[in-house]
Structure prediction request, 131 residues.
Amino acid sequence: MTQSLQTHVQNQATSLWFATFVEIEYSNSVAYEELEQVVFDEMLQHIQARVRALAYVMTVHADEEMDDDGLGIFDIEQVILTGQVIERQRDRQTRDWKYLIHGQTHDALDVIVVTKISPTDTVVIVTVYRQ
Prediction:
């Protein structure tokens, strides 16, 4: 095989490997995003069910933030019951998963409610803030 033909074959093999790698990475990221959305939807349904059953508590910090932003408990319930999970985070201290729920109040204010599930299956409203 001549040097130029060998170089051409190597370049083609490298291109094929790269294209395959990109395709695999893309399909994995799409699969991950789809799986993440399923997790978000399932957790949102669970959180909403617990809020409907009044099985939730609010931290002192969340209560203070709610007051500072001029929000009431009905606003927070509205956001949770009609909003969407937009992000999942790990709590640095407890390593629990926290779910950020974005929604609107009855007055059309954009609000994010940060929640987590306690070991007793109670929804803990960690904090709230207007966006």
Observations:
- Residues 89 and 95 are 9 Å apart (CA to CA).
